[in-house]
Amino acid sequence: MEFQTDLAKAKNHGSARSGFSHWWLQRMSALLLLPTGLYILWQFIALDSLAAVMVVNWIQQPINAGMLLIFVLSAAYHGALGIQVVLEDYVHHSGWLLALRSLTYTVMIALIFCSTYAVFKLLLG
Amino acid sequence: MSSSNRPLSPHLQVYKPQLTSILSIFHRISGLLLALGLVLFVYWLYALATDVAAADQFRGWMLSVPGQIALYLWLYTFYYHFCNGIRHLLWDVGQGLTIKKVYRSGYTVLIAAAVLTVLTYLLV
Prior knowledge:
The complex is a heterodimer. By secondary structure, chain A is mainly alpha-helical. Chain A has one domain (30-124): 3 helical TM bundles of succinate and fumarate reductases. Chain A has helices at residues 6-10, 18-46, 52-59, 62-90, 94-124. Chain B is mainly α. Helices cover 78% and strands 0% of the residues of chain B. Chain B is globular and about 50 Å long. The mean pLDDT of chain B is 94. The chains are: A mainly alpha, B mainly alpha. The interface between A and B is medium-sized, with 34 and 31 residues.
């Protein structure tokens, strides 16, 4: 993703390469997390209990499944972007940095897979 | 240029902790705790779809006394990261950047997160 104007490029302003897209997507995922996070919390508080039967029933409403999925996917992505920043700030050994960053994104993909599978399995039976 | 032994900024050994720096590092720490919580949340979600008994067992752990303490502390980090995240987004659009406003919003965020946590406890 690139948001540099042609003039800024010609003037050679800054070295914004992939860094801008990281910064931007962190904020866009945050914007998705605010309403969906609040919705899920409010809904969970309103449920009589979080017993499996109740929650499964709740997820089978398409609007809830959609909100839940947007929340978990954005949270996984937002979390991975954030952990990447922390790692890049505090891990100065490039080998460890590469390993931990790869581990972070591997876990993120696993979370995305498991939550998508779970929500669609409950929704479609 | 060899950089392995060069000092790194900020120099924490001579850096006086302030509300701003404490809230900044707490935003990171709470983010990491939320990421750990997300892993447990997805485990629970996966269990709901594949093994209902495991999901209810997980709920049982969360309803135990240590589970409840952990859950509400975690909820505080959720509300903190939520409110402080809004504070960061407002800074990103250029709002509230004077020292006075930064301190005021900092205290607001700490108190709002505590109030929301207590409110949740009372509503459940």
